[in-house]
Amino acid sequence: MYSFEIETPTTVADAVTALGQEEAQALGGGQTLIPSLKARLAAPAVLVSLAKIAEIKGVSTEGGTVTIGGGTNHATVAAEAGAYPALVWLASNIGDPAVRNRGTIGGSLANNDPAACYPAAALASGATIKTNTREIAADDYFQGMFETALEEGEIVTSVSFPIPEKAAYMKFEQPASRFALVGVFVAKYPDGVRVAVTGASEEGVFRWTEAEEALSGNFSPEALEGLSVPADGMINDLHGSNAYRAHLVAVMTKRAVKAAS
């Protein structure tokens, strides 16, 4: 680990100012950044911790929408987002208790790991990611593996999830990390069904539109019979081949629909 300075602002405004320094890096829950620092894969001159900013923490429900502060940890989401049960289940099954009590939803979405769970929830829910400067629709936010629409110094302050009629998240876990080898979030709304897949693609989280069209007409596992995603473009590594991941996408989507039903 290289040497660095650390600052702990207590307001978003102060955090934005601190991030304006040369080689400054925001620190959310640290579940990705700290291991990267230890492995010397990152070398910021200044870490700006968001842990003491109360205004970006908490869960609220109003008008059919669950809003979660960007600094809210996974354990709090699991305990307080009861109006959206599928989101509660997802948060409850991230990592282990240590990870759930440190990692934050804003940090997860800002990092956009291709195997993370929250990106699938945000994309399938048609969530709105709010920052210190603007609001970004989930369909516009995710731009590839570890890539998002966030600009330098921009902080995820909250995420708003419209509550669906039915929803479920199913993931096939990599047993050591509990990241998703493949995870599928299915959400049924009055105007149609959204299906988001994480862990599978070299491009990161994506919507499976063919499945969405089939499920919008018949929300049942049987509607997915004969549907599959191409293996080309799926991740191929020691944990699973691209063909295996493509197969898992269909399997986990069926399981998610069954669970939601």
Automatic annotation (TrEMBL):
Which UniProt key words apply to this protein? FAD, Flavoprotein, Oxidoreductase
Residues in domain FAD-binding PCMH-type? 1-166
State the superkingdom: Bacteria
The record's section on InterPro entries has: CO_DH_flav_C, CO_DH_flav_C_dom_sf, Diverse_Substr_Oxidored, FAD-bd_PCMH, FAD-bd_PCMH-like_sf, FAD-bd_PCMH_sub1, FAD-bd_PCMH_sub2, Mopterin_DH_FAD-bd
Q: Give the Enzyme Commission number.
A: 1.2.7.4
Q: Does the keyword Signal apply?
A: no
Q: Would you tell me the protein name for this molecule?
A: Carbon-monoxide dehydrogenase medium subunit
